[in-house]
Structures are given as structure tokens and as C-alpha cells.
Write a structure and sequence with these properties.
Blueprint (H helix, E strand, L loop, with lengths): L12 E10 L2 E11 L4 E5 L6 H9 L6 E6 L2 E2 L11 E3 L11 H11 L4 H14 L15 H13 L5 E5 L7 H18 L2 E6 L2 H7 L2 E6 L2 E6 L1 H6 L4 H6 L4 E3 L2 E5 L2 E6 L2 E6 L8 E5 L5 E4 L8 E13 L3 E8 L4 E7 L10 E7 L4 E4 L10
Parallel strand pairs: 3-8, 3-9, 6-7, 7-8
Antiparallel strand pairs: 1-2, 1-4, 4-5, 9-10, 11-15, 12-13, 13-14, 15-21, 16-20, 17-18, 17-20, 18-19
Helix pairs in contact: 2-3, 2-4, 3-4
This protein binds adenosine-5'-triphosphate (ATP).
């Protein structure tokens, strides 16, 4: 765990065509994912989308129906969990209640037959890493939830695994503690250089922690990318709605050349690009790309404008957030900077944006699942 040889400590992971069936139900459907050595990869998705199944497959707790899994370039599908040398942390701490913190953390080393002197050194280092060195003689019941989770983390890293798997490790903790521990986990990842695979359904947590995020939906990976890529360049409406806030506009569509125009509430808007035939278009807009203008103010070239009424106005200190309702009853979310002209509930306004800032996507019923 010395700071000197960090990055090379992490193992690359290759999941190839992983499928897991329970009877006729397919929990994982041909999932492939490459994770770089030392990368922080988050598996993000709604409940039941296959994140935990993927993690359990890597850990060796669940067998694949078909597909392959390699860690550090070697297939490990045939290896039982206890021979995989992978650290695992779950949402529920699973510390041994009858052992002190020190004994809990030493346990994986005892299993590996390490002598007492080396064991003590490793335990001290792991407890130091999670800032729990002063608690070695306490029992789990004498610790808070956050402290227990830090001990669980120490126990998972004490044997220097090349890969650490975490399944919603902060899920049972309150928001403040969760946010603080997210930063701690980030620091520990940086200091260890181990490959981390982290499961969460919380998109903010995924953005804070990850080098890259794999977005799961119904047993498949919908898109893999950095938080910025998923936010700016979502490939599907599901991904667009799962990461960050957005407004979706729908209407009768017409394509001409490289542009698609939509009639929304009787007014025409334009988006770049076109979709395959048979796909219904949605125009997706992020709140910071939208602006409000006084009704009927002149519209610049390359701008779109829709009449709307302010239905909510929230002052956020750093700016304002508006909800506006269009004539067809649909709703848009706008984030305005401090300098922007303030509007009040009930004002009739124009909702404005640049054509280049709109994203044209195929409509997708499954995207509604993100709201549950
Ligand atoms: N042993 C099992 N037998 C039958 N179905 C299972 C089994 N384990 C998981 N499943 C199903 O597989 C699907 C994927 O489950 P998984 O636990 O991977 O989802 P998840 O994305 O981790 O969700 P959550 O955030 O709720 O844990 C779910 O529909 C689940 O009910």
C-alpha cells in the first residue's frame, strides 16, 4: 500500500458476452465491459437492472449462464470466490460481531496464513488508510454505521487486492455522511491505485466517484463513458434522463436535409440530425442550455423559441431555476444565471435555446423507468 507503486496495482477486467438467466428470466443479457487497470468504474442503473448480478459474477458469488470473465488478462470463471483474491464491500457491513475491529480487519490475512508481525503491520496500515486506527480494540456494535463501513473497507483492502468491488456501500447512511465518505473513497482509490468497481443507483454519487460509468437498463449496458460524455452526448433517452436534469420536447416531426423540425404546441423548432425511419424524435435540452426571454423579444439566428408560462420560480443563490409550462401542457426546466432577468410565476415568456445545444434522440418508453 505504499504510494510509490500505485497504478500498476490495479487489474484490468474484461467481461465478455456475460449472460445470466434464472429460469426464463434474463437478469444479464450479453453484457460486455472492459475496465482499465486502476480505473474507478461505476455500474449505475435503476433497481433490478443487473448491476449487483454483474458484481456478483465478478466476485464469484454468481455463475454465468454463458460468457467469459477475465481479471488481469486471465479467465477466472472457473475459480471459486475465495480463490479470486478480490476485495468486496456490501451495503450491510457484515463485520463479525464477536471480533474487535483489529481482528475483523486481520481476518483475511489470518485466512491466508500470514504471520502475526506482518499481519499487525498490514492491519495498522489499512486502519490508517480509512482513519480508524484509534478504534482497533472496539467491537462493531460500539461503532456508528459510517465507522463500521470504514472498517469493512479496511478489511477489503488489507490483503492488497488488485480489484475492489463495492455494492451500494453507502446506501444505509445519511446524506451528509454519504457525501463525506464519497470523498474518502475517492482518496483511498487514488492512494491505493487498485481497480474499483462500484454499484449505485444514485447518479450524483456516480458522477462524484467515477472515472467512467456504465449505465445499466434491463440487464444490458446502455452506454459507457465519463460523466461528461454521458451528460453531453447521451446515446439514448434513457441515459439522458438517468444522468442529470433534462427537458424532452415532442411533436409532429419533419426531416429535411440534415435537420429535423418538430411542431411543438403549434410552434416550430429545429434540431440538428435525423433519425432512422420509424423512430419518433425527442428533442432533449439540459436546464443550463435553456433561457427565458420576455415574450415576443426578437429571436436571433440559430435560436429556437416557444411560448411558455412560468409555473415555478426558485431562487438558488447562485442563480435561479424555473419550471415553465408550454401550451401543450409539457414542462421545461430552466437554470438561469444571476445576471439573467428575473421572472415571476404566471409571467408569459419565451423559452429559448440554440439549435446546436439541443440533442435529437429516439423516443423510448423505457426512459420513463428512470423516474421511479
Ligand atoms: N437468485 C435470483 N433468482 C431469480 N431472479 C433473480 C435472482 N437474483 C437476481 N434476480 C433478478 O435479476 C434482476 C437483476 O437483479 P440485480 O440484483 O442485479 O439488480 P440491481 O440492478 O442490482 O438492482 P438493485 O439496485 O435493486 O440491487 C432482478 O430483476 C432480480 O429480481
Amino acid at each position: 500500500m505504499s504510494a510509490s507503486n500505485t497504478r500498476e496495482r490495479g487489474a484490468a477486467i474484461d467481461i465478455q458476452g456475460a449472460t445470466k438467466r434464472y429460469g426464463n428470466f434474463t437478469a444479464l443479457d450479453d453484457v460486455s465491459l472492459h475496465i482499465e487497470p486502476g480505473e474507478f468504474m461505476t455500474l449505475l442503473g435503476p433497481s433490478g437492472s443487473g448491476k449487483t448480478t454483474t458484481l456478483n459474477v465478478v466476485a464469484g458469488f454468481t455463475d454465468l449462464t454463458s460468457g467469459d470473465l477475465a481479471v488481469g488478462g486471465k479467465s477466472i470463471v472457473a475459480l471459486p470466490a475465495h480463490k479470486r483474491n478480490i476485495g468486496v464491500v456490501f451495503q450491510h457491513y457484515a463485520l463479525f460481531p464477536h471480533m474487535t475491529v483489529g481482528k475483523n480487519v486481520a481476518y483475511p490475512l489470518t485466512l491466508r496464513g500470514m504471520d502475526k508481525q506482518a499481519r499487525d503491520r498490514h492491519v495498522a496500515r489499512a486502519l490508517d488508510m480509512v482513519k480508524m486506527a484509534d478504534f482497533a480494540h472496539r467491537y462493531p456494535a460500539e461503532l456508528s454505521g459510517g465507522q463500521q463501513q470504514r472498517v469493512a473497507l479496511a478489511r477489503a483492502i488489507v490483503f492488497d487486492p488488485p480489484l475492489l468491488l463495492m455494492d451500494e456501500p453507502l446506501g444505509a447512511l445519511d446524506k451528509k455522511l454519504r457525501e463525506w465518505l464519497q470523498l474518502e473513497i475517492k482518496r483511498i482509490h487514488r492512494e491505493l491505485g487498485t481497480t474499483f468497481v462500484y454499484v449505485t443507483h444514485d447518479q450524483e454519487e456516480a458522477l462524484v466517484l467515477s472515472d467512467r460509468i456504465a449505465v445499466f437498463n434491463q440487464g444490458r449496458i446502455e452506454q459507457v463513458g465519463t460523466g461528461r460524455q454521458l451528460y453531453d452526448e447521451p446515446m439514448t433517452l434513457f441515459v439522458a434522463k438517468f444522468i442529470g436534469e433534462s427537458t424532452s420536447l415532442r411533436g409532429a416531426a419533419e426531416t429535411s436535409g440534415s435537420e429535423t423540425s418538430l411542431t411543438v404546441a403549434g410552434q416550430r423548432i429545429v434540431a440538428r440530425g435525423k433519425l432512422a425511419s420509424g423512430q419518433k424524435p425527442v428533442v432533449l435540452l439540459r436546464p443550463e442550455k435553456l433561457a427565458l426571454a420576455s415574450a415576443n423579444a426578437p429571436v436571433a439566428d440559430g435560436q429556437n423559441s416557444l411560448t411558455a408560462q412560468v409555473s415555478e420560480a426558485i431562487y438558488l443563490g447562485s442563480g435561479s431555476k424555473y419550471q415553465v409550462t408550454l401550451r401543450d401542457g409539457s414542462v421545461a426546466i430552466v437554470r438561469a444565471s444571476l445576471e439573467a432577468q428575473p421572472f415571476s410565476i404566471g409571467d408569459t415568456v419565451d423559452l429559448r435555446w440554440s439549435t446546436v445545444d439541443a440533442k435529437l434522440l429516439a423516443d423510448d418508453d423505457r426512459a420513463d423507468m428512470t423516474m421511479t
